[in-house]
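A favour, since you know our structure tokens better than I do. What I am after is a single protein written out in full by you. Could you add the entry underneath, on a fresh line?


***
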Amino acid sequence: MTNLMTPKELNEIGDQYFYGNGVDKNIEVAFTYYKRAADQNNPVGLANVGKYFLEKQNGKQALVYYQKSAELDYSLAFIKLSDMFLNGIGVKKNKKKAFKYLESAVKLNEVDAYHQLGQFYLLGIGCKKSEEKAYELFDSSAQSNHTEGMYQLGHLLINGKKIKKDDEAAFFYLDKAATNNNVNAINYLKELYRLPHSYLKKKSDLTRMKMWFFYDEILAGLDDVDALRRCAFDYYNGTEVVGVNFDKSIKYFKVLHGLDHVDGYLGMGLSYLYGYGVTCDLERAQNYLEIASNRGSSKAKNALGDMYRLGKGVEVDYNRARDYYLEAAKDNEEDALINLGLLHYRKQIKNANDTLALQFMTRASEKNSAAAFYWLGIFSDKGIGQNRSFDSAVKFFEKAIVNGNVGAKYKLAQLLYDQTQEEKMPKRKKDKQYLDIRDLLLEYIENPLSQDVNVLYSLYLLGDLFSLNDFSEASDKRKRYFYESAAEKGFSKAMVKMFDILSAKEPQRALFWLEEACKKPTDGEEYFQMGLIYNNGLFGKKQDKVMAQKYFTKAAELNHKEALIKLSIGN
């Protein structure tokens, strides 16, 4: 039956063995099939025998078979012969012969040859340089939907000296090549968006960054390890360009794991540790993280420290957590340095002290860690390991903001607000500071990475800000808007403010907010106000001293000063 096999069938089976497709790779077995096809004077079979001899590093025999294949007008044989003479593979280098062979492939309308011959003309390889001829060949290749031709055409339209430049057409062809997985086009477009190219300067920085990431993600789809790592961690951590997306981060971590990359194990461990994109599985998390740790991943060591610090799947053990963090800190792992600083700051380990807290946090800040700058702002404000310094706190919060820390905007606004209320300053300076506070809080609220609880405090602080008589933009309307926004999100203190605002004109609505506040008390003010209502029979409530006493007592339990006084002197 095998004697009746066609050359096509023989070549296909040969390919299976040559490349190991569905069978164990064996080029000797492949050769037997290729040779039988070649013996039937099949041009593909002849070229495949040439390929076999090249693999065996027998250039002389490879040349013989490729030439026989070319004599039968097999275009791919011409391309291979061109490559052999261009690079001196089994033959003496000869650029003119390389050019002639490639030219023959083009005459046979071989699509794979157009862009290659275009490169010969562009660089003057075996021929006289000609951008015009290079352009024609690149264009022919691009019109045949060959992605390398599209890339070369786009590149020439941007960089050519003797042809008319056309940025719009260039980006069209480069994008088409990139979205069809041409790596050269992907990397070139990333570079153009990074610089940026003059054609892109009208686009915002954020738009250019998003496009850069768009092309990088295409590269990740081609299993480029560096791109896979960037995409995985960008989706895991969230950036200005892409929000947190654990479904996508786990997708890329799984690919990295399949490639046996250490960050694949790290990412899988982190994902299972916190249940990000997968069901939380602390045992699997620990296994993945230990593998990554044993392969030298300082981030995995830090994560194992987190498991002991947080008691995830193990008993809380701050000292063991410290040991993992110290191992990671040997590589200057910034999260480990921060965690060590916080263990000392929070007095969670033996011999904890503020000086070491400051030292570890300072080391982390030397890596431009936004989180470290944030904590140094806290340390400066509170005088941890140093004298308290308002100016240093402001400086560190500003550095944290520049490096992308969102929470620092809220903390800086709070710090500046407290200063305006505690210190005397010129009216103009104070008003400018109010405006800075307003902008910081609004930016914080609008950021998708902001913490919900601090958003509530920010809304409340904006309400306070617009209540100030010495603020040039003071406004009852804005004050109510921000207090009401915080109240609607469940912030009790804002509900009490809404009670104050609405008491005179909308008493029933005011009472509604106070009743809601009493369901989630904070500082006792809600209970105290409700006690006054029952004590004096207000807002349609019947006077009830017993009920009033009950609310005053609840307020006093929260250390509400007026309630404590009222109880001490009686009603």
About this structure: DSSP finds 31 helices and no strands in the chain. The chain has a mean pLDDT of 97. Residues 219 and 557 are 61 Å apart (CA to CA).
